[in-house]
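Deliverable D2.4 — example input (structure tokens):
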């Protein structure tokens, strides 16, 4: 036997999104590694603990909080992210070696699904040379699925592609076809023509969920106002939206 790590997708907000496969992996885990994201996102850490308390049958597991190294705000975005991942990798390798015995089972809980805008798998890959362990991946319900389910819409139009992108890239490249936008700090849909259709969702799957749909021209200002107000109230916001060019 060797150390094993489950990378568990826990869904993007609603504890009911946790799958049966995830519950099995949660119950197989002795040590949960969690990033300390700082005060602002403590609601998210609390949700992870709530999921463990609700689904784990035998208490006996423990949490190990890993300090999240600071990301530099230098001009080169990719370089800053790559330095940050390297710093995280060092912290993770040391923690796995120190906290898991030779047959120990650990887990990282990934918000939504670990394959989508999440660095867990890249970091684990980077440390396979430094510390010995195997890992598996349990898929979860992403914010994209939560968004389309809550608006009761298909993701794609018949036979058409959908781009999954960031607010930054939408601003740089504009919209060509349907796109899901994530990680947008500043309502980047405002670069789109007013007839563009938008389905927006914030805090999806939680009691604070907000949903708005319409054209960017009609509902854009309302989304911007709702977003600013909710962000100020909670101290953080997570929102996702689907855009389609006007017919
Ligand atoms: C670092 S990415 C992680 C995505 C995640 N792995 C997933 O599968 O959804 C964080 C972004 O996901 C989106 N997101 C995650 N959870 C959300 C939620 N409950 N409501 C709205 N957007 C969410 C937001 O765009 C946020 O900026």
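Example output (designed residues):
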């Amino acid at each position: 036997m060797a150390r094993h790590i489950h990378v568990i997708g826990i869904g993007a907000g609603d504890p009911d999104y946790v799958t049966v496969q995830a519950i099995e992996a949660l119950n197989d885990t002795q040590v949960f590694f969690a990033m300390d994201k700082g005060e602002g996102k403590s609601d998210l850490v609390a949700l992870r603990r709530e999921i463990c308390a609700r689904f784990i049958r035998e208490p006996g597991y423990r949490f190990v909080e890993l300090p999240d190294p600071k990301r530099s705000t230098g001009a080169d975005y990719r370089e800053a992210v790559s330095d940050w991942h390297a710093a995280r990798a060092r912290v993770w390798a040391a923690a796995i070696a120190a906290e898991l015995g030779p047959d120990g089972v650990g887990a990282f809980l990934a918000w939504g699904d670990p394959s989508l805008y999440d660095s867990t798998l890249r970091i684990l890959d980077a440390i396979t040379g430094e510390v010995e362990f195997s890992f598996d991946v349990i898929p979860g319900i992403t914010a994209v699925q939560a968004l389309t389910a809550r608006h009761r819409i298909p993701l794609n139009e018949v036979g058409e592609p959908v781009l999954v992108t960031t607010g930054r890239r939408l601003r740089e490249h504009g919209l060509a076809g349907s796109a899901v936008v994530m990680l947008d700090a500043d309502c980047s849909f405002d670069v789109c023509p007013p007839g563009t259709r938008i389905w927006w969702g914030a805090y999806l799957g939680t009691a604070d969920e907000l949903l708005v749909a319409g054209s960017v021209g009609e509902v854009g200002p309302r989304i911007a106002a709702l977003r600013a107000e909710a962000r100020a109230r909670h101290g953080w916001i997570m929102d996702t939206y689907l855009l389609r060019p006007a017919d």
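The chain has a mean pLDDT of 92.
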